[in-house]
Amino acid sequence: MADTPAPTPQRIALLSFPGIRAFDISVITEVWGVDRTDRGVPAFDLHRPAADPAPIPLRGGLTLTPDRTLAWLTRADLIVVPGLDDHLTPAPAPVLDALRRAHTRGTTIAALCGGAFTLAQAGLLDGHRAITHWNLTHLLREHHPQVTVVPDALFLHDDNIWTSAGTAAGIDLCLHLVRTTHGAETAATIARSMVTAPYRTGTQAQFIERPTPRADRDEDALASVREYALHHLDQPLTITDLAAHAGMSPRSLARHFQATTGTTPLRWLITQRLAAAQKLLERTDLPMAEVAGRTGFGSEVTMRQHFAGHLGTSPRAYRAAFRQPAGSNPIAS
């Protein structure tokens, strides 16, 4: 029997030009440029296309060497635009033209942090929502008034373009893009390798205010609540249940939970239920009703509604796309 041909690796373009941030280059390379096939992660085809083949100087004495011309963007499945050291740095005209052509072709484009300014220069964000680092939102509004700047999110999607907030949010977006293409288990394996959180939702707040002394004292109670919820996802947990476990009133729990995590208890709980359901759909052949029961959705209908609202797909379609092959056992590190 003939061997099944290996799938074509996803082609990722790290768009390269003077002024881009070394940190974002490192994030993109760490997510898509490291061979983790021995841990069940698919191979990726990451390249660094640029308008000029000359090495690009970066801050800190580093240098980035392009390995493809901009023509390679026609082959890319995903184009990732790093942030900028100076957020008003004009991108080379050939880069902006290449981005416009890629968007017209329907290629997915993602910008990390100040990379939103590059997409705005290309006119790709006009009339659309976008996010950038919280300290740069006023600057993006001022210089690109046609863009609807969202004040507080980690990352968001509009018109096949993804934008993200600053620094760590770029990691969140990259892992989310892996998750939507290759499944939660692949994204979690990469996150474990990077020793970073496997999943923060895009709607989570960019940052949390400095905790008050009372919030500091309550942190242990909130950590205990989260641990309790994760071990009882199959139960119909409510804010009242969680508040009782923490020894707080429901209102106090909601206030402190938002202050320390950037999201509400119920949103956090739904996120954890979805993550648990994704894992079961990828790893097991359990019936849909049992997956829904084990993860606290109660019914397949409710689980399907949450999958549609948060992941844009159905549980059955998700399983068909991301079911792990029988006998596969990704290394957990």
Which terms summarize this structure?
two-stranded parallel ribbon; 13 helices; 333 residues; transcription; alpha/beta; Homeodomain-like_sf; single chain; Helix-turn-helix domain-containing protein; Class_I_gatase-like
Q: Roughly how many Å apart are the termini?
A: 34 Å
User: Helical stretch count?
Assistant: 13
Q: What structural category characterises the helix and strand content?
A: alpha/beta
Task: Say how many strands there are.
Answer: 12
Pfam family, one: HTH_18
Protein name: Helix-turn-helix domain-containing protein
Keywords: Transcription, Transcription regulation
Organism: Streptomyces niveus (Streptomyces spheroides)
Would you give an account of this structure?
- This protein has 333 residues and is of the alpha/beta class.
- Helices cover 45% and strands 11% of the residues.
- The protein has 13 helices and twelve strands.
- The chain has helices spanning 22-32, 93-105, 115-121, 137-143, 168-182, 184-194, 213-231, 239-246, 250-261, 265-283, 288-294, 300-311, 315-322, and strands at residues 10-14, 44-47, 49-50, 56-57, 63-64, 68-69, 78-81, 108-111, 129-130, 148-149, 155-158, 161-164.
- Strands 2-1-7-8-12-11 form a six-stranded mixed sheet, sandwiched between helices.
- The two termini are 34 Å apart.
- Mean pLDDT is 87; it is low at 202-217 and 329-333.
